[in-house]
Amino acid sequence: MHVEDLKYLLALTLIDDIGPVTVNGLVDAFGSASEAMSASPSGLAAVRGVSAAIAGRITTFRDWVRVDDELERAAKLGITLVTAGEDSYPPLLRHIYDYPPLLYVRGELKPDDICVALVGSRRATAQGRYTCERISRELVLRGITVVSGMARGIDSSAHRGALAARGRTLAVMGSGLDVIYPPENRDLYEKIAEQGAVVSEYPFGSEPLAHHFPRRNRIISGMSYGVVVIEATEKSGSLITANLALEQGRCVFALPGGIETQTSRGTNTLIRNGATLVQDVEDILCEIEPQVDVERPSEAPSGPDYDTTESTAANGKTGKSADEEPGDVERELLRLIGDRPVHLDDLIARCDVDINRILGMLLSLELKGMVRQMPGKYFVIKE
Hints:
By secondary structure, the protein is α/β, with parallel strands linked by helices.
């Protein structure tokens, strides 16, 4: 889009009380944002959703300094403003009712990305984080781009799993791209931007306000072929994402959990109401394969190109490349597992190590091809 047209579109999005449906309606009605900004109050008011008050705000808009500042800041921060008419705009997102007319993007959006969203509780259990990273890793090894919201808990694990497998991942923010939230995810933000993209519809300086996140969630589901919910309470925001996905005609998946676990109540309810039950990544791929080309299974990469340093399950410990010998804790786990399946709870009880570290070591051993996880949280030596 020409820079002048972009300025007018940006101006429309910066006017108070004008949402994406109204902006898109104005552009459709007048052919461009510049024509809409030049229209008369009566002409604007003839467009559906445009009140006399909104028409007045458009015709009296004079804050071009803010528009220029926004563009200058984007250039300084290496952020691209992508409009809905550009090839790099996510193709599925363009077809939802209230698609964002403009996206702020740090990194690279690819129109051929096959996206699946992984979402869930901010207060995820260690097992939930481990499972999320594992699913994320397996998805990117099949050519899937993992989408999430960079929140604490499941979202962060989704991104870290994809990054560890050198796959693409997209983070959709509920704030301006210069307001990193949560603040402890700054390093994660930078890695996602390098290996995928960080995206927002909010202008610079926008704080992560509560009402931003449901709107953020429609973008997460809107750009994805399916949404996988991994751990959710009955009031979890991830259930909003699942409901939005249903409204948008997307596949909805959920991981089951124990009836006594609060973070399983939301996912179990989704399954009861018709969501696809997920026991492994094939349950996800089978549903989306009719719509896209999914790569054949591949072995986890080995050597320096495969990095598990950022694994949340490993609790921030430095990971090892896949061709290294197992460490002391890993050797102890291998000894405890033996040649018969052993339940995760038994390993935790018998190994005098923090649960998060155990989960991280098990993930490391899986990546090295030394153990495999069986249904029901059992582990066995891989022959």
